[in-house]
């Protein structure tokens, strides 16, 4: 029972932290990660919010992943995108409405803090071993279909998102490069630390 509670807490708290990190990278105004830039670009061209597009794009990816892997859609992933989507809107629309940062140094600091928080949150939520974010599912689907290594699949997925973000006018810039190349190593660093801590809590 305690194990399930800790896993559930890790899942919800981790996703909340991820959404906060994503929000900071968007607010920094230096360019967001490819998928986040896509959602922001779509939000600017439609009546829907960034969080709404996180959910819409996630649903599309769930269907695409199902087609690529020729398996049933992983509907439980809807929980993940709903949580992230609503939390991103909470941070952007309620906590930081109309926030505008013009000082470059402050933009860089907020961007870097956002990336670290994203990696930290991802490391926490993955400890629960519940549903994957559809973006991660897309990466694994590409790996299986194309027969490539996971890093190659991740690169392909990011390029697809990047091209789509450019097409819809999403915020692409320095931040996009930083997020793309730093998030993986940061998660790799954070993950074992949280794994040891949470496993100890479960044992206790």
TrEMBL record:
Q: Which UniProt keywords apply?
A: Membrane, Transmembrane, Transmembrane helix
Q: Which superkingdom is the protein from? A: Bacteria
Query: Membrane-spanning regions, if any?
Result: 12-35, 50-68, 75-98, 104-125
Query: Is Lipid metabolism included in the keywords of this UniProt record?
Result: no
Pfam families reported in the protein's UniProt record:
DUF6198
InterPro entries to which the protein is assigned, alphabetical: YczE/YyaS-like
Protein name as catalogued: Membrane protein
